[in-house]
Amino acid sequence: MTDAPRATDAPRVVIVDDQALVRTGFRMILAAAGIDVVAEAADGDAAVAAVRRTRPDVVLMDIRMPGTDGLEATRRILADRTGKAGADGPAPPRILVLTTYDLDRYVYAALEAGASGFLLKDVTPEHLTAAVRLVRSGDALLAPAITRRLVERFAVSGGRPAAPHRELATLTPRELEVLEALARGHSNAELAERFRLSEATVKTHVARILSKLRLRDRAQAVIAAYETGLVTPGSDSRGPAGSQ
Q: Which domains are present in the chain?
C-alpha cells in the first residue's frame, strides 16, 4: 500500500484492540487513506492514557479486552474529556466501537455511554476510512437496519416503561418527525428526501434537537427516541412523509 498525502486537517485516531494484528491492519488502512494514527492501545487502561496524551479526534474501540474493557474505557474517556473541557477547551473524541457481532449487548451499552457508532471488525477498508471521517465531522455511524435491531433488542429489554424526556415537549412538530425518522437510522440525505428539505435545513433541525434535548450526537438521539417511547419496537416506520 502506498501512503496517500496527509491533509493538514486529517483525522487523528487512536486504535484500541487487544490483538496486535487487528491494530496493524487498521493502521495500514488508515495510513493509506491519509488518516493519522497517533497511538495504539491493547486494553482499556492504556486507551485512556493514550487519549489523554494524544487528544485524538476519533477512537476505534474494541469492547472485549482483558482487564479494563472498552465499555469502561469509553465511559472514562468521555467523562474525563467532558469534565475538563470548558467553553474553550478541547472537544471529547468520537468513539467508534469495534465488534465481531452486529448484535452485541455491549455495543448498545457503549452507545448509551456516548459512543458515536459501531463497526464490525470485518469492515471493508473503504467503509472504515469513511466511518472515521463521518464521526469526526460530528455525525454518528448508525446503519438503519442494524440500528433498529440493536436498539429494539436492548433499549426496552425487561419491559421497563418508557421514561418521557423532560425536554421532549420543547420540540416542534417537525423536529419530532425528524427525530422519529432519525431514530430509525436515516442519514441526513435520506431525511432531506423524506421531508423534501435541503440537507442544510435537515442539519439545522438535527442540531436544534440535540441542543434542546441536551444530547451529544445522533447516537444518543436514537436511544432517547426509543427510551421515551417516541419510537417503539415493531412500530410501523411509515409516516406522513413516506416510508423507508
A: 12-141 (3.40.50.2300), 164-227 (1.10.10.10)
Higher-confidence residue of 33 and 151: namely 33
| 230 contacts: CB under 8 Å, gap ≥ 6 | 168, 176, 179, 180, 183, 224
- Asked if 207 contacts 175 with a C-beta cutoff of 8 angstroms, the reply is no
- 48, three cell numbers: 485512556
Radius of gyration of the chain (CA): 18
In this predicted model, what pLDDT tens digit does every residue of 107-145 receive, in sequence order? 777 777 788 888 888 889 998 999 899 888 776 666 555
3-state secondary structure of 41: strand
Comparing CA positions, the residue from 123, 134, 240, 234 lying closest to residue 181 is 240
Burial (CB < 10 A; 0-12, 13-18, 19+), residue 36, is middle
Phi-psi region of 4 (alpha: psi -120 to 50; beta: other; left: phi over 0): beta
Is residue 200 scored above 70 in pLDDT?
yes
Q: Please answer whether residues 199 and 239 qualify as being in contact, where contact means their C-beta atoms are separated by less than 8 angstroms.
A: no
